[in-house]
Structures are given as C-alpha cells and as structure tokens.
Design the sequence.
C-alpha cells in the first residue's frame, strides 16, 4: 500500500510513464505527472487518475532537456518518495549523419535529466526515511543495435547511474534500479517505424516482425500495464533489498 507516498514520474502524459503513473496511483500513491507541454489534455489525464483512484494527481510542466526544469519539477512536487525517471526520445540514423542536436537532446532528456531529478529527490527521500528511484532504461541499456547511437549510449549511461545511485544510498532505506523494457508499442516506437522502414527498405509489417520483434523471442510487445506492475513491485516490501540492478521486461531479448 503506497498511500501517503508521492510518486513523480517524468514524461508521463503518454506511454510507459502514464502506465506506471496509473499503476502507482492504483496502489495508493499520490502522483505527479509531467511532460514539456501544458495542454488541457495533460491536466485532464491527472484529473482522470484522481477521479478513478481517489489519490491526489497533479500535472506539472517541466522540460526534461533543461537542467533547471528537472530540478524545479522535484522542488515543485514538494515531496518525492518515488522518483520514476522515464522521459525519453529516440532518433534513428547512422553515426556519420546523426544530427548533433539530436545527440545532445537525447543525452539531455534520456540521461542527464535523471541525474538532475535524483540530485534533488535523494535529500527528500532521506528526510522522509524511505525512497525508490526507478529509472526506465531499455533492453538497449544492456545491448546495442545499429543506428541508435545516442539512445543506446544514454540508456547504457542510465544503467550506470542507477548502480551509482544504489551505492550512494545503500545504507539508507532507499533503492535504485533500472527497468529494461524490450519493445512496447507506444508513440516512441510508432514514430521510429517510418525511419526504420527507410533504413532497411521494408514495409511496416516487416519492420515490426523482422526488425523490432526479431530480437524479442516472445514475439509479443511488452505492455505499459506490465511495466506499471514491475514498478509497483519495486516499491513493495519485497523490493527492500533489490537495489543497483536491472529488471528486464523484454520477452527474452537479453537472453539471446
Ligand atoms: P512515449 O513517447 O509515449 O513517452 C515518452 C514520454 O516522454 C512522453 O510522455 C513525452 O511527453 C515525454 N517527453 C519527451 N520529451 C520530453 C521532455 N523534453 N521533457 C519532458 N517530457 C518529455 O514513449 P514510451 O515508450 O512510453 O517511452 C517512455 C520511456 O520508456 C522512454 O525513456 C523510452 O526510452 C523507454 N523505453 C521504451 C520502449 C518502447 O519500446 N516503447 C522500450 C524500452 C524503453
């Protein structure tokens, strides 16, 4: 039961972040949703979660590509018992033509944002006497594929940051782990289908079957509900001694 705890989930107006927000709210945690936009829809999502689950749910705009916004998000949340660093973007291109601004944006959003939010959240967790840092990495935090240099560098980086955070909090009642999903059919995956079709000269169906799910032995996408369940498990008492590790939710990808 997570009642009385506040969870801040970065990049949570869609996809996996939103799935994790729903799961933590269903487990009783108050939730702070986030993205870089500030639309009626963003606030409506928070309202839906509050109405459905009875927790307090807020939406706070903050751009995870900016260090100050990352830090301000945690300060504005007021409390942060569970920090889920989930915001992420993707760009697919070979290294020689990979745009520098895409490299910089991916490193900032997918990796550096977690450093900034964690820096502000850890003192709050120590003060509260309990905490969980959950970094949403990827199967690409453990293995590589061509044409995703920035994403794979950032995801390997966040696995390393997770281990360091775990060691720095090892004697506190705080844990830090990375969840490593395989393919989940969210916007980020949907958006890379056209580029991958071009890159490999394949149809949409061929890309899904022969490129994306080729590496996923289950031949099924993981779901945002399953990732919500994984995050909730890490927040349970069973997770008290699980720290500094990775949990793969990838249909067997990293067993290959
Ligand atoms: P998504 O595109 O639905 O979600 C990404 C979220 O990040 C969105 O809420 C978006 O608004 C937010 N975001 C993007 N830029 C931001 C910024 N500058 N500031 C704040 N928020 C920002 O895709 P998703 O699949 O739900 O991705 C969530 C995380 O899961 C990412 O870190 C992604 O790398 C990781 N992941 C996804 C998959 C997959 O197959 N979908 C697999 C492994 C890991």
Sequence:
């Amino acid at each position: 039961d997570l009642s009385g705890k506040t969870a801040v989930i970065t990049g949570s107006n869609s996809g996996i972040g939103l799935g994790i927000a729903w799961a933590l709210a269903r487990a009783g945690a108050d939730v702070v949703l986030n993205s870089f936009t500030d639309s009626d829809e963003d606030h409506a999502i928070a309202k839906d979660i509050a109405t459905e689950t009875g927790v307090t749910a807020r939406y706070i705009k903050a751009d995870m590509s900016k260090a100050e916004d990352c830090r301000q998000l945690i300060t504005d949340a007021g409390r942060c018992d569970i920090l889920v660093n989930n915001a992420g973007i993707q760009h697919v291109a070979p290294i020689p033509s990979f745009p520098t601004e895409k490299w910089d944006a991916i490193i900032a959003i997918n990796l550096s944002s977690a450093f900034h939010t964690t820096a502000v959240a850890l003192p709050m967790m120590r003060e509260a006497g309990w905490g969980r840092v959950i970094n949403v990495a990827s199967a690409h935090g453990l293995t590589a594929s061509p044409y995703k240099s920035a994403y794979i560098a950032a995801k390997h980086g966040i696995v390393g940051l997770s281990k360091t955070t775990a060691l720095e909090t090892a004697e506190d009642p705080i844990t830090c782990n990375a969840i490593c999903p395989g393919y989940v059919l969210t916007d980020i995956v949907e958006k890379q289908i056209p580029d991958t079709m071009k890159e490999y000269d394949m149809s949409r169906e061929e890309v899904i079957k022969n490129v994306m799910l080729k590496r996923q032995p289950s031949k099924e996408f993981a779901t945002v509900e399953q990732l919500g369940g994984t995050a909730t498990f890490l927040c349970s008492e069973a997770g008290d001694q699980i720290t500094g590790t990775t949990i793969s939710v990838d249909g067997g990808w990293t067993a290959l």
